[in-house]
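Lab notebook, design round three. We kept the backbone fixed and only want residue identities now. Task for the bench partner: fill in a sequence for the structure below.
Input structure tokens:
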């Protein structure tokens, strides 16, 4: 029995990880049950049990260490997955250039607010933006768009919605906003853009504003504000027009 224990190697472990230990234990029980074995036999059985118990402890520690390592790796992977999910959700709902909501997110969030509480919708468009791109290049145009997005975010606070819905067009939704207050906000935005937006040429924007009762569909609120925006364009630009 002692000889077999000395020949033990990890490679000899079969499908049952503790098969050898079980055999040694069974032999020791049989020896104990016989009652007429010599002291030398008991000593040999005890030595065999000790060797396999040590092996069992080493194997148990190895399995515990492997399990702990696997758990740490799994936790790290879960954290990476959560971070990646958050990044994907952000990219799916935000404009890559400005960081404000993209068109799909504006429609989703603003549509929900309009259905519940109504609100004032502002649609604004940068005046003569094509000229900026043509004369100074698209990187200059991108910087102007980013500057206007910052102006909007500095003046308009949550729970209002700010989003970029087109190349040079933005939408702002002010939930449950009084008409007078909505006009004040729109005018503040217009003045801020005209005075504080830095660019290769003077930058202004035209604004259309619609006032909407609870239950108004997004398409209707947007269409009214967009029609008012074109009135502002035809009226000379750099102004706010309230939809009829």
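Proposed sequence:
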């Amino acid at each position: 029995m002692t000889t077999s224990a000395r020949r033990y190697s990890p490679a000899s472990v079969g499908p049952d990880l503790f098969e050898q230990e079980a055999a040694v234990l069974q032999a020791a029980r049989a020896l104990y049950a016989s009652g007429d074995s010599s002291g030398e036999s008991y000593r040999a059985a005890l030595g065999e049990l000790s060797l396999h118990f040590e092996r069992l402890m080493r194997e148990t520690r190895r399995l515990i260490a492997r399990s702990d390592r696997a758990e740490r790796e799994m936790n790290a992977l879960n954290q990476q997955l959560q971070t990646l999910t958050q990044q994907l959700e952000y990219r799916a709902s935000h404009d890559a250039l400005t960081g404000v909501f993209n068109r799909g997110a504006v429609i989703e969030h603003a549509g929900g607010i309009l259905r519940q509480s109504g609100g004032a919708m502002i649609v604004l468009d940068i005046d003569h933006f094509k000229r900026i791109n043509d004369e100074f290049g698209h990187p200059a145009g991108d910087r102007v768009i980013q500057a206007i997005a910052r102006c909007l975010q500095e003046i308009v606070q949550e729970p209002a919605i700010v989003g970029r819905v087109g190349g040079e067009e933005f939408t702002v939704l002010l939930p449950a906003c009084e008409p007078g207050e909505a006009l004040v906000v729109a005018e503040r935005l217009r003045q801020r853009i005209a005075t504080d937006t830095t660019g290769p040429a003077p930058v202004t924007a035209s604004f259309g504003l619609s006032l909407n009762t609870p239950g108004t569909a997004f398409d209707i609120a947007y269409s009214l504000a967009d029609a008012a925006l074109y009135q502002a364009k035809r009226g000379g630009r750099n102004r706010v027009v309230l939809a009829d």
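Keep this in mind before ordering anything: Residues 1-14 have pLDDT under 50 and may be disordered.
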